[in-house]
Every structure is written in structure tokens, then in C-alpha cells.
Amino acid sequence: MATEPPFFEKYKAIFQSSANEKEESAMVDVFEELELPLVDIGHLNLGPFERQECIETMARAATEWGFFQIVNHGIPEELLNRLEHEQVKVFQQPFDNKSEENFLNLSVQSYRWGNPLATSLRTLSWSEALHISIKDISEMDEYNNLRSTIEEYAEKVNVLAQRLAEHLAQNLGIRASYFRDNCSPSSSSLRMNRYPSCPYSSMMFGIIPHTDTDFLTIVSQDQVGGLQLKRDGRWVSVKPNPKALVVNIGDFYQALSNGKYKSITHRVIANQESERYSAAYFYCPTYETVIESCSRPSLYRKFSFKEYREQIQKDVKATGGKVGISQFLL
């Protein structure tokens, strides 16, 4: 049985209409490959000077880039390798199995692919994903060692995310307990991504441009590369680092920091030769949590996670995509 999502069958009209528009649709951006700021967070465990210097480096990256990468983060390499191994195995399942309503015995449909709202190749994501709320992991079939591996990873990466969020809040006047009070381990989610090799790689994306909704995203990825972010009005490619995890600021932290930290538009390009794997942990508050800027005058009106999600749904219906945090500017 076929394992690949039926992109050509489902989006046949889009591919046919784009066949005669290759020159107009082809990417014309010139990409520069850059290395993200690298932070050794092992320095947080050293003396007060090294600790403060490390925090300031993260804060500067969150302000100037919205992205940084971390090493000595405490998540064992063996666990990261095991997570990727289990991820590869589950995506190798037949497509008919993956697309079943109760795949992995989850009550909420976790398997996603393509983009049902796509109207052109440039709005179609050439990828498949398993998006699992942490609170639902206990429902999963064991499926080899996938569930136990995800449980182990989620526990460790949640501790890491909370630690990073608290350190980034240090100079913003945000109370020390804010994230512990508003982000329970079960309020976050994990998205495992696979980007198949793509024959239309010059005309479409692995994931279309977007910002993340959460406070922080922590990403483990293989070495194929493909992550790009918008910096100073132009797209730049991120050079993958085999020893590092990537961290980026989400919409909620941009609003909480009153615009000091930046939630940056990013995307993943499709690759004609190689498939790519990544796993993104989204550090989120509970639905009832109210996000309010930490300083005055506030750039954003206060809003709840639930309200933000409802606004995204309205925007997607109205515009075909997420508008994001700009909807909440005062």
C-alpha cells in the first residue's frame, strides 16, 4: 500500500492550472544562508556572571532575531535519535492507515497533510504531520515505542521550555511564577513533521510562511535543512546545526513582552532530492490564560488563548490564512 499522501490526486486542479505559470510562480528570492545565534545554556549552571551573560545573549537573540539555537540543553542525544527513529517508522505507515479517523487511537484527528485551503502551489504545503496535544498522549496506542518515547521527550522538553521562558522574562518585569501558573504540562503540543522530496520544489513550500501562536517553540531537526525566516525584509536560510535545538519566539511572547521579543515569519522550503524530518514542541498556556503586555503603554489589548484561537479560525475562513498577533494591536 502507498505511504505517500496523494498530493497530485487531491490538488490536481492546482497542479494543472500552475503548469503554464512556471516562470511566474518560480521562487525568485535570493537566499543567504546564516547561522542562528548559538547559546550554550550550560552556562546557566555556572557562576552569576556566566549565568547573566547567557540570559542576556538569549534575550538579545529573541529581540533581534526571534530565533536562536541552544546546546547543552539537557535532552539526551539518544532520546532525540530515538524520537526521530520512531517518527520515521510511523510516517512509513500506509497512507490509508495514517488518514484513519482514529489513527494511533487518538480521539482527535492527529494526522494532517497538504493544505485544504490551498488555491495555488505557493499556498500548498508539501508535507505531512502528526500534531498531538500532550494531554492526549496517554490515549495513544503504544505503536512500537512511539508513545513511550513521546512521553519521555515531552516531559524533558517541557522542563526546558519553562526554564527558557522564565529566563527570558527576567528583565521584563514578569513575575517569576507566571509560566508555572499558566502553562501546565498538558497545555502544550508536539508536531512531528515529514517533508517528502518534491518534484515542484522551486514553486512551492514544505510549510507555507507563518508565525507560531505559542510562547516558545523548540525544534529538533535532521541535517537536510530548509528552514527559512524573514529578516530585515528578506528571506534567509538557516544553516542546520547537528548539535543544537532551535528555539523561536511565538505570538504570545511577543504580546507578553509588549513587542520586545519578536515572533518572526518563517517557512520551510521543499527539497527535490531529500526528505526532511523535524519535531516542534509548542509551549502553550491553558485556554483560559489571559495574555497581557508586561509594560505600558501597551501595544496589544489583552486576550485569552481561547479568544486568539477563535480569531485565527475566523481569519482562516475570511482570508484563507492566519493573520496573527496584528489583529490584537491597540
TrEMBL record:
- Keywords in UniProt for this one? Coiled coil, Iron, Metal-binding, Oxidoreductase
Keyword Metal-binding in annotation:
yes
- Source organism, top-level taxon: Eukaryota
Instruction: Please list the GO terms describing molecular function.
Output: metal ion binding; oxidoreductase activity
Classification via InterPro entries: DIOX_N, IPNS-like_FE2OG_OXY, IPNS-like_sf, Iron_ascorbate_oxido_reductase, Oxoglu/Fe-dep_dioxygenase_dom
Q: Domain Fe2OG dioxygenase: where?
A: 186-285
What is stated as this protein's family in its record? Belongs to the iron/ascorbate-dependent oxidoreductase family.
Name of the featured protein: Gibberellin 2-oxidase 8, ARABIDOPSIS THALIANA GIBBERELLIN 2-OXIDASE 8
Name the lineage. Answer: Eukaryota, Viridiplantae, Streptophyta, Embryophyta, Tracheophyta
